Structures are given as structure tokens and as C-alpha cells.
Amino acid sequence: MTDIISILDENFDVIKFKEELIQHEDVKILSLNYFSHKILEKNKLSHTLGDLYLSMEDKSLIDDKSIDITTHWYNQDLLKPFLIYHGINLGSLIELELSQYLLSVYKKTISVIRIIEKENPKIIIVSTSINPFLKSLCNTKKIKIILLENLKTDSMYFDTINVKSNIRSIPISITFSRKNYLKIKNIFDNITKSLFSINCNKLRYEKSILLLDFNPVPYKILLNELSKLDKNILLLNQRRPAMWNLKSMQIVRNSKCTVINLNDFEKYDHNKIKTEIIDLTDKLNKMFELNDVFENIFIFESHSLWNSIKNTFAETCISRFTESLRRITLVEQMFEKFDISVILEWAETGQEEKEIITVSKKKGIPSVLLQHGVYPNSLTWNKFARFLAHFPHPLISDKQAIWGEITKNFALEHEHNEKDLMITGSPRHDEFFNFNKIIKNKGVILFATTGASGIFTEGSTTDVHIKFENFVREVCRVAKKLDKQLIIKPHPQPDSINNLLDLIKEIDDTIPIIFDTDLKELISSCELLITFNNSTIALESIIL
User: Fold this and answer.
1) Which of 5, 212, 300, 316 supports an S-S bond with 121, CB 3.0-4.6 Å?
2) Coil, strand or helix at 478
3) Which of 100, 155, 88 is nearest to 387 (CA)?
4) Can you tell me the distance from the alpha carbon of 330 to that of 131, in angstroms, rounded to the nearest whole number?
5) Which regions in the chain score pLDDT beneath 70?
């Protein structure tokens, strides 16, 4: 038993917390996640990791609870009428993002319950995003609670966009708000469109193939092969620019792709979209007044989480659903303008892809999902398959282009139709098989890092993050001891998961960090590649 404990997540005010600590003796401090742990560590405040109180059964419960709510809340009888637009339930479009948010919320919730059960405190000092839940819990258990206000509310995964690049040899990582990033992307798209004289009104053929959010550089051969068909190749990139450097611009130009932007279709329906967004916002605001319904959805052990998450949940839904309304209307215009015979995509669980494929199905336009990485085949991943476009769950694409027999057999084991599976090899790896320039530098080690997944509880605990940091430190230490030149190639995870730039700067700021590069050249120039977490770069190294 501990008389006084403090429970903190990442948004606590360090100054106010220290002021509160002075007024008490022997406070046991507990961090609820990796980010609060790092803040406490930086401020030299001794603490215990809160998620160490979770059992394996707890972790499984967190996963199940977040999945269940993510996939069912929008089909509640009283909520569904507010969410339907053009026959599409808008709630179904944000499952990927919402599942990760709810995983974080329920991980905090169940950690707090287990901490209180074990420590049995008389007083709790808290600063968390679930303060209202904690207050209700402490009142029931007759525990005195001291509430410290959080600096900011929780956010969703895609509220910010992290962009990484190299300016000469200098690694740059910048995080934008979602709104500002999309503004910058639209400006960039318009500039490249004007420079390259891309004109959708001068297409060469009647039929078109639509590619969704493809990076032209790794798919250079595929784009060139598609350009030999008697069809227009339309490239629609909604999350990242289709062209961002000279190489990508050359590939798009040489493959005769036409880069399109949904904004180009807004002139047809601008006033209609504006009116419908106002109407939808009003409907959603009324929906979120149904507190009894949402309190029941988010109840846990007789205490509701709704008051803790209402603002974040409601604001995100209104923002994402009005975005979807606009894009769905513009996608319908796009399908009216272009006679699209097939859609190629590689990330069908994204909100933007779901919108397009859902509309395309109503118009009878087939879609094909290209396998783009190594599929995890551990049973652990199966219940998250719907968020990963993974074969243990039914896919929304009509056909799947897969690498080979192993993937095919894996899909068949999970009751997928053989007629929907096309063995095509991996278009993004064709260049690896044809690459002959092997120059191994005996003094260079390439270290390709992949941090915590954030998909399920066991893969996102503070301990997992700490092990990742320690592994990175140890590789750097050994490389230096062996007098080897280490090159870091981070996985394109956002800084909010693992801020590798800060970690390497702390370890040794002379170690090169490379974001943008030709992987074939980079891997071939090194004598050894170190990676972990089943990264596809391991496969690329084996190919070479």
C-alpha cells in the first residue's frame, strides 16, 4: 500500500506538478506511457512505469475493447442515421485512426485501475486526459483526488503530419498540423502541375487506370509498363505529393502519367459542398448531444469514459467526416469525367482509399490491391488485420496482386477466393532483381530502424520503446568500438512514435541519418545491414 501516488500522462504541466510535489512527502510517481516517462526522466523525477501493472490478459482486453468499439459504434441504431452520406456510413472510414486512439485511451484506463488496485492509495495526484474517469473512480473508492489540469487535450494519429527529408547531408524532420500540411501540399501540387503542363482535358485514350497514392520512384518500372497500354494513367495522391524532387518528376513525365487533384473538380459542386458540410455539421452536433448513448458505448467497469474523450472524439469526427463529404462528392465528379476501368492501390485501410473504393464499387469499377511489404503471419496480428489490409480479414478490394505462392496459400487458409488472387511478383522490387552494381564497403554498416508498432498494446508499452532505444544505443556503441562507419536509415514513422533524430543526436550527432535515398545503392554499398521487427528492408537486402 502507498499512501500517496501520482499518475501522469504526456500532457502534464511539469512546473505545476513540481509545485504540488513540494506539498507532500513520499509520493510514488507513475507514468502512463512512454512520452510521460521521457518527460519525467528528462526532469530527473524518479518514477515507475504504469503499464508494468498490466497483465497479458489486460493487454488482450485493451486490444479487444478498442477493436470492438472502433468497428461497432457507428452502427448503433440511434447514431447510424446521423452518419449516412450518399449511402456510405462515414464512421466506417476512420477505423484505422480511431483504433489507435482508443487503444491509447483504454491502455491508460486499465493501467490506472490496476495501479489503484495494487497500491490502494489514500490520495492520488493526477494529470491525465482521462481525469473525469479518474474522478468518478476515486469518488466510488473514497480516495482523495487532486486534479492537475493538462496542458492540452489528446489528439488523433493524423492530426499532425510528419515530413522527413535530407537537405544535402542534413536530416530534417518537420511536423505540420493536418490543416497546414494539406494547404502546403495543394500549393506544391499546383506549382508542379503548372510547370509540367498537366492537362486532364487532353488525355490520349478513352479508358483510364487510376493509381492511388503511389510513390513514383519505387514504382518506376510499373509506371513505365502501364504507359505502354492504350489507357491513360491517372495518378491521384491525396496524402503526399506525386512529384517532390527531380527524379520523381522525370519518372512521371517519362511514363506519361497524368497527375490529378480532387480540388480541380470542386468548381462543379462548390456551393453544394458548402451547404452539405453545414448540414452535416449540424447533424453531427445533434448526434453528440446523445450523451446517454455515448456513455453506454464507452462504459468500463461501471464508469464511463465519455466525458474524458468527448471533445477529442467529437471534434475529430466532425473534421474527418466533413472532409469525407467533400472528397466523396469530388470523387463522384471524377468518375463522371473519366472512364476509369480499374483502380490500383496499396493501402486500402486509409480514409481516402476507403472513400474512393466505396464509391467505385457502386459504379462497378474494380479495384486491385498491390502487396507492398512482407505480411506478418504471427497469430498476434490476426485480429488487427482489418486495419492493415491483411488476409486474415476480408479485404474491400476486388482483386489482390500478391508476391507468390506463400502469400497465396496464407490467403487461402483464411478463406479468400482463389479467383481474386493474382501472383504478380513485387513491382517495386523488380529493380532490385535487375541491379548489378555491388560495391561493398568493408567499413560501413547500415542500420535500418523500426520502432514500436503502436498497433496493439503489447507492441506499444513503455518497455518496448525503452528496449528500442537501448538496442539503438548498443548498435551505435559496438559500431564505434569496431571502428565501423554506421549509417542510420529510419523507418518512415512519425516522430510522435519514436523520435530517432533526437536519440541519435544524444548518442552521437556525427552518425549520418538518411531519409531519402536509392535503397539499392545504399544497401549495396554496405558490408552489413542490421534491422529488426520484420522490416521489408531485410528482404531487399536478401535480394541484393
Assistant:
1) 5
2) helix
3) 100
4) 41
5) 1, 195-201, 438, 440, 495-497
**The C-alpha cell of 277 is what?**
458540410
- Find out whether 410 and 375 touch, Cβ atoms under 8 Å: yes
Q: Write out the E strands in 383-535.
A: 399-402, 421-423, 441-449, 485-490, 526-530
pLDDT for the residue 516:
80
Q: Dig out the grid coordinates for 533 from the structure.
A: 521487427
**Cell 452539405, residue located:** 276
Q: How much is the pLDDT for 333?
A: 93
Expressed in angstroms, the distance from the first to the final Cα of the chain is 58
Position 495 scores a pLDDT of: 62
Query: Using CA atoms, how far apart are residues 408 and 344, in angstroms rounded to an integer?
Result: 19
pLDDT of residue 1: 66
pLDDT given for residue 185 in this prediction? 84
Amino acid type, 309: I
Give pLDDT, residue 158: 80
Return the exposure string of 354-381: e unless at least 16 CB atoms fall within 10 Å of the residue's CB, then b: bbbbbbbeeeebebbbbbbeebbbeeeb
Query: Of 490, 467, 456, whose CA–CA distance to 376 is shortest?
Result: 456
Question: Which of these, 344, 355, 349, 343, lies nearest to 262 by C-alpha position?
Answer: 355
Give the pLDDT score at 198. 62
Q: DSSP code of 16?
A: H
Query: Is residue 516 packed enough to be buried (19+ CB in 10 Å), middle (13-18) or exposed (0-12)?
Result: middle
Q: ∠ at Cα 99 (94, 105), nearest 5°?
A: 125
The residues, ordered by sequence, that sit 6+ positions from 194 with a Cβ below 8 Å of its Cβ are none
DSSP 219: T
Please say whether the beta carbons of 161 and 181 come within 8 A. Answer: yes
Three cell numbers at 275?
Answer: 451547404
| pLDDT in the model for residue 290 | 97
* Alpha carbons 252 and 234: distance in angstroms, whole number: 10
List phi, psi (to 5°) of 144: -70, 130
Please enumerate, as own/partner, the contacts of 288-297 that have beta carbons within 8 Å and a separation of 24 or more.
288/314, 288/317, 290/78, 290/79, 293/76, 293/78, 293/79, 297/69, 297/73, 297/76
Count of helices and strands (H, E) across the chain: 20, 21
